[in-house]
């Protein structure tokens, strides 16, 4: 009987996605190693690093070094950190709506494609991701993106690994879209927040998905047009996640609700939360794979 190929589908969630590392650390420690990985946004970033090295500890060292270093500080995420984050106002568009009222951010986003320059964005991706082709990773890997011109999901399995990760992570308005061949690509979370389906198409017999998105908030307001935009955006992303999660055999959901999406300094907390969630799911995972702990 051939060995079961396990695929990991790593979802988007900005800083909360660092919890992916904790999940993978526990699963790989217990012998549940990935046969392939598909990631969206921060999931693509973590997934690419794991697929290229198969060494979780090395990836942890890279992440610590990067997010505590000068390269990340130059991205200037500070323009969003001045917001008083609460559980009800902690999404991307919550942050942008505050800054749309301020002429600086408003003028920048109207004058060019993104707040962060392409050069700065790609340099930061290069600090974390190996300069190899997607097809050269140690296990099959794919990054999910949004094809802006085609209006569809794009699943990248060939080409430069850094460019693929950049494209999958290119949050509209914050980071620039990425030209990939004849396509213009942006953050994959707008079409597939939890890429279990693409993971199965990549050859996985069993798909373990890691969901770091927040649940749909029930405490909200609709007093202004921006309030409604934020709410509808949240509903859309939540609905997409619930559709795509059906393709997974097991969903691990780290309890990252208290972590702000910009809190990239909470590395240890996010990894710990990922570890906790994976530990609680081990018995289910072993049963799913027909193995004993």
Essential attributes:
13% strand, 44% helix, globular, 12 helices, 293 residues, 8 strands, eight-stranded mixed β-sheet, alpha/beta
Question: Can you walk me through this structure?
Answer:
The protein has helices at residues 19-29, 42-53, 56-67, 70-73, 78-81, 92-100, 103-111, 118-128, 161-169, 196-201, 225-244, 267-289, and strands spanning 6-10, 36-40, 141-147, 152-156, 178-180, 183-187, 206-210, 250-252. The chain has 293 residues and is of the alpha/beta class. Strands 1, 2, 3, 4, 5, 6, 7 and 8 form an eight-stranded mixed β-sheet that branches. Helix 1 packs antiparallel against helix 3 (56-67) and helix 2 (42-53) packs antiparallel against helix 9 (161-169). It is globular, with a radius of gyration of 18 Å.
Shape: globular
Q: Which regions contain 5 or more consecutive residues with pLDDT less than 50?
A: 78-89, 99-106
Percentage of residues in strands: 5-15%
Count of separate DSSP helical elements: 12
- Please give the number of β-strands: 8
Quick one: biggest sheet?
8 strands, mixed
Radius of gyration: 18 Å
Class by SSE composition: alpha/beta
The helicity comes to 40-55%
What's the helix-strand series? EHEHHHHHHHEEHEEHEHEH
The residue-averaged pLDDT reads 85
Measured distance between first and last alpha carbons: 20 Å
Topology:
Layout lengths: L5 E5 L8 H11 L6 E5 L1 H12 L2 H12 L2 H4 L4 H4 L10 H9 L2 H9 L6 H11 L12 E7 L4 E5 L4 H9 L8 E3 L2 E5 L8 H6 L4 E5 L14 H20 L5 E3 L14 H23 L4
Parallel strand pairs: 1-2, 1-7, 2-3, 7-8
Antiparallel strand pairs: 3-4, 3-6, 5-6
Helix pairs in contact: 1-3, 1-12, 2-9, 8-9
């Amino acid at each position: 009987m051939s060995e079961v190929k396990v695929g990991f589908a790593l979802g988007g969630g900005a800083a909360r996605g660092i919890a992916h590392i904790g999940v993978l650390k526990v699963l790989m420690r217990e012998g549940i190693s990935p046969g392939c990985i598909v990631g969206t946004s921060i999931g693509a970033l973590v997934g690419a690093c794991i697929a290229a090295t198969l060494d979780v500890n090395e990836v942890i060292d890279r992440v610590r070094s990067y997010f505590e270093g000068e390269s990340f500080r130059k991205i200037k995420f500070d323009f969003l950190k001045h917001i008083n984050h609460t559980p009800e106002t902690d999404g991307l568009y919550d942050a942008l709506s505050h800054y749309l009222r301020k002429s600086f951010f408003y003028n920048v986003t109207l004058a060019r494609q993104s707040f962060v320059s392409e050069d700065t964005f790609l340099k930061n991706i290069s600090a974390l991701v190996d300069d190899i082709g997607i097809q050269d990773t140690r296990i099959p890997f794919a990054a999910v993106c949004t094809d802006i011109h085609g209006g569809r999901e794009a699943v990248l399995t060939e080409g430069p690994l850094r460019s693929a990760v950049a494209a999958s992570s290119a949050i509209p308005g914050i980071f620039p879209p990425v030209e990939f061949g004849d396509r213009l690509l942006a953050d994959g979370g707008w079409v597939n927040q939890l890429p279990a389906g693409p993971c199965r198409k990549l050859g996985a017999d069993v798909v373990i998905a890691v969901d770091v998105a927040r649940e749909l908030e029930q405490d909200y307001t609709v007093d202004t047009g921006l309030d409604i935009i934020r709410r509808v955006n949240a509903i859309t992303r939540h609905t997409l996640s619930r559709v795509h999660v059906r393709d997974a055999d097991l969903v691990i959901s780290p309890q990252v609700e208290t972590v702000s999406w910009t809190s990239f300094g909470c590395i240890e907390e996010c990894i710990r939360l990922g570890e906790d969630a994976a530990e609680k799911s081990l018995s289910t995972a072993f049963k799913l794979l027909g193995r004993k702990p």
